[in-house]
Predict the 3D structure of the following.
Amino acid sequence: MSSVVHVHSLEGCTPTPLAYYLKALAILRLIAKQVDAGARGRWRGDRFELLTRLDRDALIDFFTRRYQPSPLVAPWNGGSGFYSKDNTKGIAAIEGSHAERFAAYRAAIAAGKALTEGMSAAPKKEAKAALQRECRTTWRGSLLAWLDAALVLDADGSAKYPALLGTGGNDGRLDFTNNFMQRLAELFLLDDPEAPARPHTRALLSAALFGDTVPGLSRSAAIGQFLPGGAGGANQGQGYDADSLVNPWDFVLMLEGALVFRAALSRRATAQSLAQASAPFALRGSAIGYGSAAGADESARGEQWMPLWSSFTTHDEVEQLFAEGRGQLGTKIAQRPVEFARALARLGVARGVDAFERYGYIERNGQSNLAVPLGRWKVGPRAHEDLLSEIEGWVDRLRAAGRDKLAPASLASAARRCEAAMLACCRRDSALHWQALLIELAAAEQAIVRSPRFSRGRDLRPLPRLSGGWITAAGNLEASESAARDLRLALSLASLHGAETRLRDSIRHHFLPLDRAHRFPRFSGSSDAIERRPEVVATTRDLVRDAPRVLRRRASLRNRQASTRNLGLVTAAHWSTATLADVAAFIRAETDDARCLDLATACMALDWYALAREPTPPRCIAEAPPGLATDPGALYGLLRLAVPFSVVPESRRRIYDPLRGSHETRVVPELDVSMDPAVLERLLAGDVRGATSLALARVRAAGLRPKLSFISASVDECRRVAASLIFPMGNRELHALVAHLCNFDSPEPSPG
């Protein structure tokens, strides 16, 4: 053999469809085991590259003249060729061959016939299980490798079937092993002592390996779930129906590649309740993360993620990769797509995997099971992936409840949308994806509230406390300005709380019915409605309508606790207050109110009291960029001072006076205006004159001298100004409003 190393770009071996992926594994395995132990392979782009001492002619010569097929038999299956009513064309041809390279296959057939002697048909139930146990006990070598890939034996000896090979080497009435033998008979002259290749075999092999075009494909030769495009059937060609078109080499190499998936099956089967989960990189199915996802796609066959690696790797290393084929999250083995997606970074670093091709075993084209590619997932670190562990248990509980036959459809749908959003965050760590996840979490929480009796019976709870990392993830600077503005307003609203740490001081209890244990309260009598609570006033899911209701309620709370001077209407984290530019955009209806409210509802679950105690607040989104209109208008400015959210301490502000063309330092006095509900009521009624008169009186009583005496506004502007008062202002913004709207008796000269 030549010492020169050749790199073959196998255009016929691609990550999709599944048959072509398995082909690549088979070529590396067969070359390494039978002719060149130093062979290596890797994925480069959308093709497989083989590094070997065989040149192209030697590679083709190996498969056509020296290739020894793996002995694949399934005597436990009907249609396997071992019973009187089966198609015996393939098994008879191999059994009658005298070629040395088919010796192992003849021995396997003889072993199968010894086990089925006296049987006229395939065994059923316990007899079938007993036959499979006998095979597990007596088979060795390549036969045992095939058995381990086709089925898993539980501790009690009953068989479970990984989805890759159907139900023990068959799919419905299609037995893979019998068709494997028939395809071999089409490729080789088995009645010749040397079993040479047929005249068309080399051309078919060149097509299978290098993607060459060649006529003479096998017609009406089924390939099962592995190659949906060649399976035939309705809408697969001209006319109403079409025959399947299969290159025999594709089928043969596809099953040879499936033997790699035998690794560690029985070792993990005892720890997993799902047979699919015991196979390498196999998971429970979830109808999420792809365009055609539907609830019916969550079949018992689940899904499987196929690894792609970019460094030349030996077959032994690949075999070890599949032997450890699972994702690990701490001590937990990933069993669902979201969990596996979270574990991708760690697995890739450990084993040199660059990406995974995701496949779902889904019913398509009637009741046919097909291996459907569901997208490619790149391996890499995710900065905020650990945040998902905070909601993982909550979403799991929601998904489990949604599977109940009595569950409202909205709960199952909400769980799927949450999982899809979590999967999107694993795929791309961007602010918009994290914001979308927060929105889905808020929608799921509302779905729980809308089904109170069922939710209480399943102990479904509000969102758990979230850490400040969610602010960093959702506030990444990649977000567009409109999305960032909505998030800034949402955070300012969500951070409202009283000076005390009791639950009733938080704004969240105005949006959700919560008891002291942070759960939904019990039912009232035999009614289907959750016990009514006077604190819950935001019920319309309309920010413009709900915000004034919350203001009224918090005003009544403040009046009852007037002795607590620092309570105010609300208190907000100093780094989460709204900017004048954001409020101005809200008043002009340039914001997405529904999105803002959904984000705020989810962000209310943040542990704001813990955040307030942290010396350094979480990294948040940037303030509004310069150049945007920042003046929310005189009506808002006056009402903002008359309906304060916190006490404004005295300060000295250096302010530019455009009339004098210079800066002046002015003393802004302390501001503590008590809330008059009549101001808000008149504003909501469109009585601008009455609202401004009351507001002016309140501001003057606080010791300020407003510059204005009359303001005009439309009814719609009044409603949005009233709603905008819910967003807290920082002291800097409040000082700016005071300086802008009020006169001062004795300005001091600027220093220097």
Notes: The chain has a mean pLDDT of 81.
